[in-house]
UniProtKB/TrEMBL annotation:
Substrates-to-products reaction catalysed: 4-(phosphooxy)-L-threonine + 2-oxoglutarate = (R)-3-hydroxy-2-oxo-4-phosphooxybutanoate + L-glutamate; O-phospho-L-serine + 2-oxoglutarate = 3-phosphooxypyruvate + L-glutamate
NCBIfam families noted in UniProt: PRK05355.1, serC_1
Family membership noted in the UniProt record: Belongs to the class-V pyridoxal-phosphate-dependent aminotransferase family. SerC subfamily.
Keyword Amino-acid biosynthesis: yes
Record's protein name: Phosphoserine aminotransferase
Names of required cofactors: pyridoxal 5'-phosphate
GO cellular component, one term: cytoplasm
Length: 360
């Protein structure tokens, strides 16, 4: 979705960034030039942590880390920190990203695939069918599969004593989370929280201190905690913007309000899809349709590629860009992250109806 000056939630933060860019809070220098050891950056780091703690009501026995390396970096960081002698890990693979994460973890130990074999990533098998191992170092799942549009609507129950680990990259801070149910939560910032370059890790403190000796220091949660996430030069600018976004979420009603908006926005699009008499289709089981990523095909269930091309071209003419579905699934995908407004989603919905009337 585009940022048009004056509209779009991203604009509110970006305008602040623009205003402060040349002179950060009267220091006479840009935040881009500030040392990561400066008083100013230390304040940004502390403030981001405190705001996130407030937003998710993170219990005191959990550490918050702002790391680099993205979600994919954590696909390795998680097993390297949590295996702790055990060689088994349980992975619930419900889509592209959890599949990639399981493959990465397989470099470090035995990955148990806990779900029955899926023909397509369009649903979450009933909890009764999951094969969980009491020996597993942790149970991993992806809260929201960005590409397939499959989202867990509740927290899956694991086995007692086996920490639950979740990749929340694409729905982080779009809904309340009971952090105490998790051993570890990770989220790459670039969807809902800020620019790429920051990866949030929230880890229960009793899981620290057990990293594999071969774990690179920058991925080692214990070392990063000791160094307040500044073991090496961090992405200062990205964390600065992340801090502004966190503050924006707090000022705009917190995660409860973000959730309300996400429900409203996604229901509007699913309504257009379901009411289209098959012209648009979303294959995901309605019980786990994502509120942040709505993939759909145009021109019937299998998609008509020529119509989809025309749909995307027409959307671009109306300044609705980057709606192309991921290459692995094709079609169209509307990502409704916190920066996207209800008005922008309504523009897309109106365009969908208009396009359908012209082509069905
Ligand atoms: N997990 C999920 C759910 C994602 O959507 C993505 C990226 N789109 C990743 C992990 C990988 O994140 P990164 O590109 O920051 O490595």
């Amino acid at each position: 979705m585009p940022y048009t000056k004056g509209i779009g939630n991203a604009g509110q933060v970006l305008e602040k960034v623009q205003k402060e860019l040349l002179d950060y809070k009267g220091t006479g220098i840009s935040v881009l030039c500030t040392s990561h050891r400066s008083k100013e950056f230390t304040q940004i780091n502390d403030h981001a942590e405190a705001t996130l703690r407030k937003l998710l009501d993170v219990p005191p026995n959990y550490s918050i880390l702002f790391l680099q390396g993205g979600g994919v970096g954590q696909f390795a960081g998680i097993p390297l920190n949590l295996l702790n002698g055990s060689s088994e890990m349980d992975y619930a693979v419900t889509g592209y990203w959890s599949n990639n994460s399981a493959k990465e973890a397989g470099k470090y130990g035995q990955v148990n695939s806990v779900l029955p074999k899926l023909d397509s990533y369009t649903g979450i098998p009933d909890r009764g069918t999951w094969k969980l191992s009491p020996q597993a170092a942790y149970l991993y799942y992806c809260g929201n599969e960005t590409i397939c549009g499959v989202e867990f609507q509740d927290v899956p129950a694991g086995l007692p004593g086996v920490p639950l680990v979740c990749d929340m990259s694409s729905h982080f801070l779009t809904r309340p989370v009971d952090v105490s149910k998790y051993g570890l939560i990770m989220a790459a910032a670039q969807k809902n929280v800020g620019p790429a370059g920051v990866t949030v890790v929230i880890v229960r403190d009793d899981l620290l201190g057990r990293a594999n000796p071969l774990c690179p220091s920058i991925l080692d949660y214990t070392q990063q905690k000791k160094n307040k996430s500044i073991l090496n030069t961090p992405c200062c600018f990205s964390l600065y913007v992340t801090d502004l976004v966190l503050e924006w979420i707090l000022e705009n009603g917190g995660v409860e309000e973000m959730e309300r908006r996400c429900i409203e926005k996604s229901e509007s699009l699913y309504g257009a899809i379901d009411g289209s008499r098959g012209f648009y289709s979303n294959p995901v089981d309605p019980g786990c349709r994502s509120r942040t990523n709505v993939p759909f095909r145009v021109g019937g269930a299998g998609g008509d590629e020529a119509l989809e091309k025309a749909f995307l071209e027409g959307a671009a003419q109306k300044h609705m860009i980057q709606l192309k579905g991921h290459r692995s699934v094709g079609g169209v995908r509307a990502s409704l992250y916190n920066a996207v407004t209800k008005e922008e989603v309504e523009c897309l919905r109106s365009y969908m109806i208009e396009f359908q009337e012209a082509h069905q």
